[in-house]
Amino acid sequence: MTRTAIRSAFQTVGALLAEGVRHLEEALASDPGATPELDAQLLLAHALRISRTCVYSHPEQPAHEPAAQRFRALIARRAAGVPVAYLLERKAFWTLELAVSSAVLVPRPETELLVERALALRPEACASAVDLGTGSGAIALALAHERPGWRVSATDISSEALSVARANAIALGLERVNFAQGSWFAALPACRFDLVVSNPPYVAATDVALAALVHEPRRALTPGPDALACLREIIGDAPRFLAAGGWLLLEHGAEQGPQVAGALTARGFVTVRTHRDLAGHERVTEGQWPAIR
């Protein structure tokens, strides 16, 4: 065994963590939202199969070579821009722990605002809701978890995404959520819901922001040159699937609130309101289909 191999075989957790942090600090220096230390801690815990708490509370523990190799491979992929959630194959959303893969978007904290608003608008124990473009199932499963008496459905055009969502439903004991494959409402039978929620693609294909999202499914990010295309389609079709007095809730870009609100009003929705996320950005716009027309 070479001297290098002997030294690396007995590298400590703390030394390996410091190595990973340095690598990510250099690779992600141009990203103002990067979190090199947190990322390295999470990836090292994953590679060592221990908790993150053990990583920083016991830095003197040995990190043997197979685990060190796993960690360095993960660090290299993170340095190349792969989201941490894909590397861990897990992401927390609402109060749930979800499995994720490159077939679905990584659930974002700002999307939890959709869940908050849906629960606030329908506090009743019994209601019906559908999540259009469910991806990992995050929104639909959060609603089903919070409202056991609700009838919850979810659609997605991607069979791969639905496989992830169904697996999450089974893991969380929420098999009662109904999943259907198809584009938006096309996957649904003729029925009406009290709530329709969606986080559709809303980034224009020409937006430079897409460059930082290259590892996530493009179809879930952008509808093409017209950033509002999917939002308009959902708004146009929603009344055929909403019960009288039902609500449509849509996530959108930080500067799209006025346009989404205008489209809802033009379609005949009332009580149209836009809500800001925790960062202060306009993120969710809702509208109610009138009980009497």
Whole-angstrom Rg: 22 Å
CATH superfamily of the largest domain: Vaccinia Virus protein VP39
The CATH class name of the largest domain reads Alpha Beta
N-to-C SSE string, H for helix and E for strand: HHHHHHEEHEHEHEEHEHEE
Give the overall pLDDT as a whole number: 93
Largest sheet: 7 strands, mixed
| Residue runs with pLDDT of under 50 for 5 or more positions | 1-8
List the total number of helices.
11
Widest sheet: strand order? 5-4-3-6-7-9-8
Instruction: Please estimate the helix content.
Output: 25-40%
Count of domains = 2
Structural class: alpha/beta
Number of strands: 9
Please name the CATH architecture of the largest domain: 3-Layer(aba) Sandwich
Percent of residues in β-strands: 15-25%
Sum up the overall morphology in one term: elongated
* First-last Cα distance: 82 Å
The CATH topology of the largest domain comes to Rossmann fold
